[in-house]
From TrEMBL:
PANTHER family registered for this protein in UniProt: 2-IMINOBUTANOATE/2-IMINOPROPANOATE DEAMINASE RIDA, PROTEIN HMF1-RELATED
CDD domains on file: YjgF_YER057c_UK114_family
Spans traversing the lipid bilayer: none
InterPro entries: RutC-like_sf, YjgF/YER057c/UK114
Family: Belongs to the RutC family.
Pfam families: Ribonuc_L-PSP (PF01042)
Protein source organism: Aquamicrobium terrae
Protein name: Enamine deaminase RidA (YjgF/YER057c/UK114 family)
């Protein structure tokens, strides 16, 4: 197994890896809308953009990209946030021949109240 820790991302909040690659499988921890400088944008779309930017950076560490993603799992804090999150996801996967599987859950909150969305991914490199 190999830990994936892009230098463009803030360090994890605890004792975990942003991503792990094992053989052909890549999994990411849930990514929050947190910029490298520690700022958190106010809106769901801006936070989702950061979540996916972090996921792309993790995948790139394993020489993968969004076309390798099997599944996204996302969490939002309010039902009203679903459309904004989905607009970002749909824009990013629009050009993919096979769209990843996707699950979206509504949760009561994250570690800080400013966080509105979290996204994790599972990817498989072609063999």
């Amino acid at each position: 197994m190999k830990a994936l820790a892009p230098a463009t991302m803030p360090a994890p909040f605890g004792s975990y890896s942003h991503g792990v690659a094992s053989g052909l499988l890549i999994v990411t921890s849930g990514q929050l809308g947190l910029a490298a400088d520690g700022t958190i944008p106010a809106g769901v779309e801006a936070q989702a953009e950061l979540c996916f930017s972090n996921i792309r950076a993790i995948l790139a560490e394993a020489e993968a990209d969004l076309s390798h993603v099997l599944r996204f799992t996302a969490f939002v804090t309010r039902r009203e946030h679903m459309a904004d999150y989905m607009a970002v996801r749909d824009r990013l996967v629009a050009g993919l021949a096979t769209k990843p599987a996707s699950t979206l859950l509504i949760v009561s909150g994250f570690t800080r109240p400013e966080f509105l969305v979290e996204v994790e991914a599972m990817a498989l490199l072609p063999h």
